[in-house]
Every structure is written in C-alpha cells, then in structure tokens.
C-alpha cells in the first residue's frame, strides 16, 4: 500500500512538471530584449482597404494602402541608429532607410491579407532590434460590363502574406443588373430573366439567385459568404435567351477579421 502511494506521488510530481512547461513559466522571459537599442516606433494606422476596378475587361486604377512608421525616437546606448527597416511580409524586399535623412518609412500594400510586418533598427555598433506589427489590408473591387447577356467576373481570395493566414473572414457581393431602355421613347424591349451564380475555387456553386428585370429597371443581388477559401472565385451572370442586353455592376469586398490587426501607436504631443 505504501509502495503504491509513493508511486502515485512520483507520477503526480512528473505530471505537474510537464504541465508547468505547457502552461509557461520562466521561459516567457527568453524573448525579452536586453540589448542597447530602445526601439520606439509610432504609427497612426494598421489597417486599410485597397480600391480597384475593371471596366468592360480593362483593368482600371488601383489605389493601395499606404501606412507610415516613425522611428525618430529610437535610440541606442552604444551609438547612433544608422539604419531602419520595414519588412512588409508580402514577398517584396524589405524597405531600408537612413534615420539621419528621414526617420519615417512608408510602404504601400497592393494586395490583401493580414501581414506580420517586421520593424527593425540597427546602430553603428552592429546591434539590431526588431518588433512585429500585424497589419490588416482588405480589398474592394468594382467590376462593370455594358450591353451583355453573359458576364463572368473572377477575383482572387488568396491572402498575399507569406504564411497565407488567416483566410478572409468574408466575401461580400452586391451585384446590380440594369436593363436600359431600348429606344428613344422607351418600349419595345423585352424582360430579361437573369441568373446569378457564385462559384468557389473548387468549382462548387456556393450560392445563386434569379430575377426578372424589366426594360428600364434594375435588380440587385446582395450576398455574403463566410465559407471562404483561397483561390479564384467566379461570379457568373446569365441572361436567358430572348432577353435584352443588360449592364452589370458588381461590388465585391474581400475582408479579414476585424481586430486581427494590432492597435495603433500614435505619437502624443
């Protein structure tokens, strides 16, 4: 009986030790920086939305998201800060700067994702220190096509960050089909029976809708998919035979979880 009790006590001791390792402890201090560089970076924003458009198959202008990071208050006990750097986590080369010329680094993201950017400073003694900041970049696409009976829009929902995570939280679609008047005085046109179909990268139909759009009228289909997957999505719009030509306006947003970005760190003066 005593032997069994001693065996149980040893087992509980070993189990407690293993759990202490899993739950954390003194190891948490291993990541604390103790070098000479005091890395201070200010930034007013850590999120934004890219705006892009396609009109009748022609790519329109794209406005990326520019964010700025101010290293002016970074110092080193071993000398002057000679180099600052931003790694944008989108496959592009890091951006370097000389703080004696300009202590602010700005970068424009042209692709969507939640990017784990690295901000670094190096002094003239060769010491360096880095921090990571999460940046959320969403994308808004306006896609238009005129006088058509068959329209196919495609868009890429693949995050461009290097680890590919997280996937978009949602894809939001607002698609409007307009059946314009066919003549100077109206009349003479036909109703247009329209079918919308959303297809995921595995060629699976995610959602669909139908409607009849009379001459001089329009109809909008609004849909949000939270069953997102990386890859090329397609939004197909078909007008039934004998229907009028229509105009199509698709408004698509690829959005990531709100709060997946880090909080801002503005300069307070």
Can you name the CATH architecture of the largest domain?
Answer: Sandwich
Radius of gyration: 28 Å
Query: How many strand elements?
Result: 17
- Low-pLDDT runs: 1-30
DSSP helix count? 1
Integer count of domains: 2
CATH C-level class of the largest domain is Mainly Beta
**Alpha-carbon distance between the two ends:** 71 Å
What is the residue-averaged pLDDT?
Answer: 88
- General form: elongated
H/E topology pattern: HEEEEEEEEEEEEEEEEE
Question: What topology does this entry show?
Answer:
Layout: H1 2-23, E1 37-38, E2 47-55, E3 58-63, E4 65-70, E5 75-76, E6 81-87, E7 95-97, E8 104-109, E9 113-123, E10 128-148, E11 150-156, E12 170-179, E13 192-199, E14 205-213, E15 217-225, E16 232-239, E17 246-255
Parallel strand pairs: 2-10
Antiparallel strand pairs: 1-5, 2-3, 4-8, 6-7, 6-9, 9-10, 10-17, 11-16, 12-15, 12-17, 13-14, 13-16
Describe the protein.
- The chain has 2 domains: 37-137, Immunoglobulins (Immunoglobulin-like, Sandwich); 142-255, Hypothetical Protein Tm1070, Chain: A (Sandwich).
- Helix content is 8%, strand content 50%.
- It has one helix at 2-23, and strands at 37-38, 47-55, 58-63, 65-70, 75-76, 81-87, 95-97, 104-109, 113-123, 128-148, 150-156, 170-179, 192-199, 205-213, 217-225, 232-239, 246-255.
- The strands form 4 sheets. Strands 2, 3, 6, 7, 9, 10, 12, 15 and 17 form a 9-stranded mixed β-sheet that branches. The protein has a 4-stranded antiparallel β-sheet with strand order 11-16-13-14, with no helix packed on it. It has a two-stranded antiparallel ribbon with strand order 1-5.
- β13 and β14 form a beta hairpin.
- Residues 1-30 have low confidence and may be disordered.
